[in-house]
Design brief:
heterodimer, A: 298 residues, alpha/beta, Rossmann fold, 2 domains, six-stranded parallel β-sheet, 11 helices, B: 240 residues, mainly alpha, 3 domains, two-stranded antiparallel ribbon, 6 helices, 2 strands, extended
């Protein structure tokens, strides 16, 4: 009798108690700064290799699109941070852009944060706005604005000003006439499938397509694999796990590097997953035993 | 207000917003509703302002009013006014017809704009569909036997076989022109359904993962940044 009532109370556990358990599981590694080595992600390795093999060349740039807002910051901001950091370490000039209005603060804060971190790591070197990166800001027009990029004969004339209203022609990156063919890498980060599609469809000409890599949220991983399999994507960061592995690779390559939050968040996530798996198994076992007890009793 | 004070109050406000939204986990309440509406309002307002700031003003209005032409002290100008920019007025006026949606008498004018937008979107989607789908279609033709260094690469071969089987089974499940009557056809169709279930399971698992990642980030903000801001505000101790 006692065991039956215990099982029943376990099966009727208030969802708020489960929320509390999940909260504790997530908070513990954060408060103790406890991290574990992230799992190896093959597609993140591909992207790492692509960026690592890029060489700073005159008139060659990387185009990075931050199409995310605070709602997917946890995963997308970590992805954007590791890739932009890698590009800045390699001294590849970056054009930052967004189709998503709420990305505006990230376009400003992420490169600034990386610049400060790199300059404290290498006190004799400087990273400058206009030379190492340019922020085009949020641009409305979705697929239409993406379509205008391959058609442009000079990107400075297409976008005219940057996010701070400075004419692009005055910035060192745009001193050369830039077109799609000057873009060696396109890296797009988003939690929105629609914005990602517009790059797959239109960010190319008949004879040229830059290497295309993508950072997606965990929800869209199964969809992103289709593009990776077909070769439309050359590299992929899968949710926070992809960002954590990329961050681990960066720390492995640059030993004096300041740790970011990707590995810490990934650890918390791993512990919470173990808790959820445990609860699912416990719930199912309790359900089966409870059914058997009731069958025997009747 | 100094920059540090601004950051302090932004952090405190961010924490209050987060906790108000999380209060929904206990039960539906007015705090949750208020902050939900604030978020939607800010997103919509910001969209309009940024659209004006990054597109309408620099790319349309500045050249239209000739504001990009500067007069030098000697009376000469930095450039000539381009009369072709006056053509921008036509699409601007056409777009403004959308506001007739509020008029019962002239509502048909808004339909012209809606029709144009639908046609343009359809054309764009049609073009985009081929650019997106054709590479996927050609990549689905996979070799069932993959050779590597003169021997069969069993791992890749089995992977490709599973891919092709899944593709055909799922397509057959949605093939409604001929009724599946034989036992084999029924089993093949059912396997398509089961394979889709596996796919939905992976979608559900990855959704849980994404939601938990959002929670970790908010917890990190509350436990580290927000707690530190509260400590500073009430001088409980030095910032973490």
């Amino acid at each position: 009798m006692k065991s039956r009532s215990k099982l029943r109370s376990l099966l009727n556990l208030d969802r708020r108690v489960i929320f509390l358990f999940v909260l504790l599981a997530l908070a513990w590694p954060l408060l103790n700064k406890y991290t574990i080595r992230p799992a190896r992600m093959k597609s993140a390795d591909k992207l790492f290799k692509i960026v690592d093999e890029l060489k700073p060349e005159k008139g060659k740039v990387a185009f990075v699109a931050f199409d995310f807002g605070p709602n997917t910051k946890a995963e997308n901001a970590s992805q954007a941070q590791v890739v932009v950091e890698h590009l800045m370490r390699k001294r590849i000039p970056i054009i930052l852009f967004s189709q998503y209005v709420l990305a505006d603060p990230f376009l400003k804060s992420i490169p600034e944060k990386i610049k400060l971190s790199l300059e404290s790591e290498f006190p004799e070197e400087k990273w400058e706005y206009g030379k190492d990166w340019v922020n085009l800001g949020y641009r409305p027009g979705s697929a239409l604005i993406i379509q205008s990029i391959p058609k442009s004969t000079n990107l400075a004339e297409t976008f005219i000003i940057d996010a701070f209203s400075t004419p692009l022609k005055e910035l060192p990156i745009f001193k050369e006439k830039l077109t799609l063919k000057n873009i060696t890498l396109l890296f797009q980060v988003t939690g929105l499938v629609g914005t990602f599609d517009s790059y797959v469809q239109f960010f190319q000409t008949k004879d040229y397509r830059p290497q295309f890599s993508h950072g997606c949220t965990s929800i869209t991983i199964p969809e992103a694999y289709i593009y990776l399999d077909s070769g439309q994507l050359n590299g992929l960061l899968e949710g926070i796990a992809g960002a954590a592995w990329y961050s681990y690779r960066l720390s492995d390559e640059y030993k004096a590097r300041e740790e970011d939050d990707a590995v810490l968040i990934n650890t918390g996530l791993g512990i919470a997953h173990l808790l959820l798996i445990g609860l699912i198994i416990l719930g199912n076992i309790s359900g089966l035993i409870s059914k058997r007890i009731e069958r025997v009793a009747t | 207000m100094t920059n540090q004070t601004l950051i302090l109050w932004t952090t405190i406000m961010g924490g209050v917003c987060t906790l108000s939204i999380f209060s929904f986990l206990i039960k539906e309440n007015p705090f949750y509703r208020v902050f939900e509406h604030i978020f939607i309002g800010i997103a919509a307002g910001l969209g309009a302002i940024q659209g004006f700031r990054y597109f309408l003003w620099p790319q349309i209005l500045v050249p239209l009013f000739g504001l990009n032409i500067v007069q030098y002290p000697d009376g000469s100008f930095s450039g000539e006014y381009n009369p072709y920019v006056l053509l921008y007025i036509a699409p601007l006026l056409f777009g403004l017809l959308y506001y007739f949606i509020y008029s019962k008498k002239h509502g048909w004018l808004a339909k012209l704009v809606i029709g144009f937008s639908l046609g343009a979107s359809a054309g764009l989607s049609f073009k985009g569909f081929f650019a997106e789908m054709l590479p996927q279609l050609s990549s689905s033709f996979k070799s069932l036997v993959v050779m590597a260094n003169g021997t069969i690469d069993w791992a890749s071969s089995l992977s490709n076989m599973l891919f092709v089987f899944t593709l055909l089974a799922v397509m057959y499940y949605f093939f409604f022109s001929i009724k599946a009557e034989s036992a084999t056809a029924k089993k093949f169709s059912a396997s398509g359904r089961w394979l889709m279930m596996v796919c939905f399971g992976s979608f559900f698992g990855s959704t849980v993962m994404a939601r938990l990642a959002l929670l970790v980030e908010r917890l990190q903000f509350l436990l580290i940044d927000w707690a530190s801001a509260i400590k500073t505000l009430f001088s409980f101790g030095p910032p973490a």
